[in-house]
Amino acid sequence: MAAGEFDLIDRIRARTVARDDVVLGIGDDAALLQPPAGMQLVVAMDTLNAGIHFPHDTAPADIGWKALAVNLSDLAAMGATPAWCTLSLSLSEPDAAWVDAFLNGFDALARQHAVALVGGDTTRGPLSVCVSMFGFVSPGRALRRAAARVGDDIWVSGTPGDAAAALAQWSAGGARDPVLRARLDRPTPRVTLGLRLSEVAHAAIDISDGLLADLAHVCRASNVRAEVDVDALPVSGALRAAVSDVETRRALQASGGDDYELCFAAPVAQRDAIFAAALDAHVPVTRIGRIVEGQGVVATSNGGPWMPVRTGWDHFAG
Ligand code: ADP
Ligand code: MG
Which of 67, 214, 222, 240 fits a disulfide with 148 by CB distance 3.0 to 4.6 angstroms? Predict the structure, then answer.
């Protein structure tokens, strides 16, 4: 169904979440927003390109969900409260049915977090979705990558590796588990957990590029070393069922991206508070290591050094 640019924008505007702090939303040259007094503005942006950030066969509703989810995840990793977003949409054809389906996913997640879409841009081009997210944090409360300290526990939320397993299954072209695929297409941003952690943790990052790679960013920024016990990594039932080889599974967990779980460093004295925060946020958390003096990330298994096996798709298919 072909549609004009303004028809598409009208469809988008009709679906947006209402908020009192949106003085002027979609429809003028720019939006007018009223941040709460005394709060810092937190800003993040992430782009999803077809074929690079999601498989070409991804449903439009899932693309909509994920475009918002990856940005909410960045705010969660800062310990921020999300409020507003903008959306830049490049479409090869001005297809109203596609936009409606996209909005079904986008809007479902936006409503969950009371995020208002306040503006954007609609252009013709290869399918690409770029969202900017705006939120708030109390001054001094943001969870920065540079704030991990020697002696901290290292934690991870949820069950890393599921999204990478779904991508591996999709690539291999064999059996595909819908539970794993949902973890790839509809990641759950850990917004409530991030908010609660801002009171008790030192540093956090969301796992978009793989647990060990993202943890390495924290170590570099904090000038510390991370020791991760791969035996402690929590495994989902779906991942255990899909990948029987332990080393392949661990490699997906340690190096696979797209999980959008939180990896965070927190003082040992906060263990009980962290379990309480996880209970409130309805997401399991697992202690997987500790911060020590030095640089880089070392992974261990059974007390010895551990290196991930190559996770080629062939290996996975076998
Ligand atoms: P301008 O030419 O001033 O940039 P546009 O025609 O691009 O105006 O946009 C008109 C209004 O629609 C603006 O308020 C803009 O923020 C909004 N808008 C355009 N595209 C989108 C989109 N994909 N999502 C949300 N708002 C959009
Ligand atoms: Mg414009």
Answer: 222
